[in-house]
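Write out the 3D structure for:
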Amino acid sequence: MRLARLIGTLSPRHPPPRPLPFSTTSSSSSSVASDAPARVLGVGGVLRGEPRRFSGADVAAYAAVSGDRNPLHLDAEFARGVAGFERGSVVHGMLVASLFPSLIASHFPGAIYVAQTLSFRQPVYVGDEVVAEVQAIYLKESKKRYIAKFTTKCFTNQECLVIDGEATTLLPTLVLNK
């Protein structure tokens, strides 16, 4: 069975969940001392990033930095012919997954990414529109910071789940929305 077909059998299409209320506030009512404004987040809160398209140049730059020069990513003919990826070059999964820490840090400056699990469900092709989304599933104050766990998902075309997993972060400021 070709690799592209095998990956396709691992995950059906799942529509993305609707975002739940999430807001920011300029209040510093958090018990954490910080000059940064506290952010409001509750379990179930969803953060959704802006749509992103990875170009061939993005993939080539990632290959140069990471050393991952697998021809599946850099040679469209190889990707189509050998592995059965009919649409050509596949974006590195870790490049797509880099949207998660970026999304969290854009809402919580100073966030520390502690752990991430990932499952790659479908390929992302050069030029596909990808949207990252994280949903808070656990929040707890710990040593003047907050431990926050999120489910992490990336979708193409607003419906096809391509990556999912779970992230654990330390947030410097937070107001718990109960």
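The longest strand covers residues 129-142.
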